[in-house]
């Protein structure tokens, strides 16, 4: 990202610029933590990284694609195939199994039912949830839900994992297990952007990026 500005309510009395020409890069295979106080622009930066929002100004190149000017349909395709999202509150779909939750991202990518099921079972086994594949989210603990969410994020073999406070809703012991899983994924060559308020967890990553008032400090 180069010279990224994000302004809300443009040309109104409530105009607010949240990102002020931020320059941000991540190399393939890096494990980067993004830290900063509330209001520093972390969430806005995350939404732009994840193609959930567009910058007002600036360029953003993701795996060779200049995405800043893409339309919503093109962004949706890239988002599905190139970015795996992991959220603080898991965002699993209730009343369907862990396996079906993992399969959903692949369904939108047009992968066959047989291959979806095979890969979902493979990913659930990788995160230690094979024995819970048929359980619904309401039957899982917080840590188990997050491991299912990580499996779902990996479903389409994305270029980048974007984790927004992934241990924030977990107790310290469970958070430790989830963090260990991120280290395993990094060792496998995964590119991870890890947004956190926890300075101890940030210290475990390869590089820490600090945001202050909409800028990379």
TrEMBL record:
Alphabetical keyword list: ATP-binding, Lipoprotein, Nucleotide-binding, Transport
Keyword flag Acetylation: no
Domain ABC transporter intervals: 2-217
Pfam families in alphabetical order: ABC_tran (PF00005)
Membrane-spanning residues: none
PANTHER family noted in UniProt: ABC TRANSPORTER ABCH.1, IMPORT ATP-BINDING PROTEIN
Protein name according to UniProt: ABC-type transport system, involved in lipoprotein release, ATPase component
Source organism (scientific name): Corynebacterium casei LMG S-19264
